[in-house]
Amino acid sequence: MSSQVLSSQVEGTGSRGTRIVGAIALALTAMLLLFGLVLSPPEIAQGESVRLFYLHVPSAIVSLYIAFAITLVGSVIHLRNGSVFWDLVAGAAAEVGVLFLGFTLVTGMLWGRPTWGTYWTWDPRLTSTAVSFILYLGYLAVRRLDMDPVARSRRAAVLGIISFFNVIIVRFSVQIWRSLHQGTTIDPTDTQMDNIMLFSFFLGMVAMVSIFAWLLMHRFRLAWIEHQLDEDRLAGAIAARRSEAGDADASGLNPGAI
Questions:
Q1: Global pTM?
Q2: How many whole angstroms separate alpha carbon 139 and alpha carbon 164?
């Protein structure tokens, strides 16, 4: 199939599944805004700034422990058997994860200003999170290198595995070093959150996961289409080269001189 034919058949990355997930994500986001910004009460110490909590913490969990974990799994599987599917899943998850982690850093700085008196401090949790952001930006940069696709995917997979070690450091940074950042967000034995605040937090979690799933589905489908187009262009280039070589043989020319 030529790239023109394949392109004409692709109308977008949407499907019945993405539309359903998108509708769920939209509804949950609307509920989150209602409960997080209107119905939930201000916190005693943090006041109105606590409302960022319902966005900041869920986005951090989704990026670090869901998106980048998928990248880790996809990278390991790709290195073991060369799976194109899992390579593309790993790349798509990392790209969406970086978006969520950037949102985490921004909301964290907005939260830190009224809480700590500054937008940024070189706190172990903040610093290690910023390092993860840079590492996965580097991972995405490697995936864009102009080189052999197989070697490029393998190098990206290695970096995807290495980068996850820093996620572990982020997780335990507040236990390893003295930190301004709070420790465990939800303690099953003592949440120190009233019912509506706790509900708003879990609503934020479900909303962020649904948004992540919607974005991941679209990004993977786009990556798969790009991969198919690249494969088609390569096959077309090889066929054209063979045709040129055949014409040269028929005319008595030396193919090696072409």
A1: 0.83
A2: 11
